[in-house]
Fold:
Amino acid sequence: MNEEKVFEALKKSGAPMKSAEIAEATGLPKAEVDKAIKNLVKAGRAESPKRCFYAAK
Structure:
C-alpha cells in the first residue's frame, strides 16, 4: 500500500521530508503521498515537526 511506501521512505531518510521529496523517493504521485501522509499522521505513525515537513514516529 502507498502508506507503507511513504512510511518506509520517511524511516530511511532519518530527517523530515517535504511531500514532494517523498513523492520523488517513492515514485508515487504527490497527491497520493499527501493522502498517505494524512492517514499516517492520523494513525500516529508520522508527525509534522515543522510546517510542510513530515517524519516517521
User: Anything to note?
Assistant: The longest strand covers residues 46-47. Residues 30-42 form the longest helix (13 residues). Residues 46 and 56 are 4 Å apart (CA to CA).
